[in-house]
Amino acid sequence: MSKLLIVGSVAFDAIETPFGKTDKILGGAAPYIALSASQFDIESAIVSVIGDDFPEAYLEMLRKHKVDTTAIERIPGGKTFFWKGKYHNDLNSRDTLETQLNVLADFNPKVPDAYKEVEIVMLGNLHPAVQLDVLNQLNKKPKLAALDTMNFWMDNALEDLKKVIARVDIITINDEEARQLSGEYSLVKAARAIEAMGPKYVVIKKGEHGALLFHEGQIFFAPALPLEEVFDPTGAGDTFAGGFTGYLTKTNDISFDNMKKAIIHASNLASFCVEKFGTERMQELTKKEVQQRLQQFKELTQFEIELT
Amino acid sequence: MSKLLIVGSVAFDAIETPFGKTDKILGGAAPYIALSASQFDIESAIVSVIGDDFPEAYLEMLRKHKVDTTAIERIPGGKTFFWKGKYHNDLNSRDTLETQLNVLADFNPKVPDAYKEVEIVMLGNLHPAVQLDVLNQLNKKPKLAALDTMNFWMDNALEDLKKVIARVDIITINDEEARQLSGEYSLVKAARAIEAMGPKYVVIKKGEHGALLFHEGQIFFAPALPLEEVFDPTGAGDTFAGGFTGYLTKTNDISFDNMKKAIIHASNLASFCVEKFGTERMQELTKKEVQQRLQQFKELTQFEIELT
Predict the structure, then answer these.
(1) CATH number, domain at A52?
(2) Tell me: the pLDDT tens digits for A13-70?
(3) Which of A127, B90, B227, B262 has the most CB atoms within 10 Å of its CB?
(4) Within a domain: residue B307?
(5) ipTM of predicted complex
């Protein structure tokens, strides 16, 4: 069976939404990615870094989801990356109230030997130099390297970012970031420009408006499930990335047709993530719930029109 | 064969977009609705009002699309409604530079006798008192009355608007208007609140982000086709409404399943409207082009996932 290598932050988040606030809870891209991918019963490993203050219980919880945590390096005397943010009333925008990089500032990723010939790699949102470092540690080119990034790296590490973009097969970014990276307002043109930078596949995430998959002129669209209430959007994009790469790992098929299914699974899983604070909903999510909501996705999008 | 009764403005528009500007060209909700509906080879009639200055050639063009123009009243000495607007660079927002109500200020709609027992009525965006007047002139309750409106009437004629909303079967409004009308941010909750005001079906238009159809807890979503370039968004919502009601008129089937198809046809037709200034693209649109783009809609949205 193929395995999934995940690189990304492991963090403490303190989150405030119109519905409530949390103290420090489990956060960071990697746990969201791993929990989402775990829905496909695959083996995965996280490459990351934490401090002394990080509870063993969080690692234990990840291991229960078949996540190899041996490459999450614990730095003696170090403190775990911390992010504090507050969402606005519409939940579409947020203010960062505090960022403490802590051990993430000097992160030297170490890919476990058992993952050096891995088929699928998910490079979660992190400094692009770290993402590149991980690719360079692999013994062979993976079947699929997927990259998630954000505008922060476009502003602060564009040259490194361009290098890693040139090395990956697929990139997932949001609509505003796609526009910033490409200089094109039209997402069709933006995707084409980004494909020219390296990735053969481009996924543009539009939050509550769904996600678009682009590949050589073909386009597929997955809506976001219309929800009564979004409780906490934190981690939705990472959950999407984990669902996407988790499904591809499980099926070991990176055709465009299979990526369509992957993007639907990804949207489906992300729709759960936002229903509770942090990773809470993803930790308890059952296969039955996932299947039921996939049925809702079908009803939401499938139609029959005969063409003449 | 069933027929479609259309009420709406017939106007001159002067439009400026980042791509160019027009002098006075054919505008108003009704011509967009009628041209879009004409793709289904149905008979329709427009109830509206124009001034002396309105070219006969525009009416002739509509008649060539099987649109009955006898109930478009020409007011001697009157001037046609005129709107001038300028779109911002992202084309998602616009400034109204000039509005001359002219003959529309004293519009007394007159439904032609041949349409007083019509099955489908499309009440295009107009003063809700005019929309009500039209419903009151019908000899019997139509099979389906559809209403389009906008925030202007919520701000300025809310009581009349609520009366007409209570009388129609389906309402089409955009996301911000749905929020304003319902007081709910979540579109799922907003649709439920609007259903409680009367219409059994609610369509929420999200522009480039597609459209949602709500009915008693069921939801269907039609994306907007991702376009390389939007040239002029004017009339896209009216074209959507015309495609929707035109398809329902053609098929004479107002089941939820058929409405799904209608909303896909509606999105499909709206995707053409924005490719040129005003009604230009809709006037020249061929059946072959429409069918080809429907195939693109299928490829964009259809997937196969087996549920366990």
Answers:
(1) 3.40.1190.20
(2) 999 999 999 999 999 999 999 999 999 999 999 999 999 999 999 999 999 999 999 9
(3) B262
(4) no
(5) 0.91
